[in-house]
Amino acid sequence: MVKNVRKGVFSQGQKAEPATTEDVAVAQDLLDTLRANENYCMGMSANMIGVNKRIIAINAGIVDMPMLNPRILNKTTPYEVRKIQRSAEDRTITRYDVIEVEYEDMDFNKKKQTFTGWLAHLIQNEIDRCEGEPVG
User: Fold this and answer.
1) Long-range contact list for 111-119, CB < 8 A, 24+ apart?
2) Would you say 54 and 69 are in contact if contact means Cβ atoms under 8 Å apart?
3) Interatomic CA distance for residues 74 and 26, integer angstroms
4) Confidence check: pLDDT of 13 > 90
5) Under a CB-based contact definition with an 8 Å cutoff, are residues 79 and 94 in contact?
6) pLDDT tens digits, one per residue of 76-123
7) Catalytic one among 80, 89, 104, 126?
8) Which Gene3D superfamilies does this one have (predicted)?
9) What whole-number percentage of the chain has pLDDT above 70?
10) Contact predicate 95/66, CB 8 Å
11) Do the beta carbons of residue 45 and residue 10 sit within 8 Å?
12) 126 catalytic, yes or no?
């Protein structure tokens, strides 16, 4: 079901709770909401639809991919990104061009995958949201 997207701050400072098998409907709602907003959004975290669970969804080109309980295992090739803050001064953060991510799919099968470039950047942004970090 498509949910309203919360604008602005999404549970900053509040770390998301781990997703469980009872949260599969939340993951589906997140996918539905991502698809409904595909004209301006390529990634979302569950807190963007008002649910404080560790679930993200990204548009990976021809497929939308849900990730439950994602975590970055390895990261290489750092670069700096200027983050534009809504309520504080801009700051610079480090992102990585190559990341290895472990996550669970909608059936809670463990997956491990390497992402590069834009998808790596996008996933890092959404994981930051799950960590309660501000994302510009």
Assistant:
1) 112/73, 119/58, 119/60
2) yes
3) 27
4) no
5) yes
6) 999 998 876 555 667 888 999 999 999 999 999 999 999 999 999 999
7) 126
8) Peptide deformylase
9) 88
10) no
11) yes
12) yes
Q: Which of 53, 57, 47, 39 is nearest to 5 (CA)?
A: 47
Interval 3-13 mean pLDDT: 68
In 3-60, DSSP assigns E strands to 43-45, 55-59
Domain coordinates in residue numbering, the chain = 21-130
105's tokens: 């799919």
What is the number of other CB atoms lying within 10 angstroms of the CB of residue 66? Answer: 23
Name the CATH code of domain 21-130 (choices 3.30.110.30, 1.10.645.10, 3.90.45.10, 2.30.30.280): 3.90.45.10
pTM score: 0.90
Q: What pLDDT is attached to residue 84? A: 65
* Residue among 51, 41, 42 at smallest CA distance from 11: 51
Q: Identify the pLDDT of residue 78.
A: 96
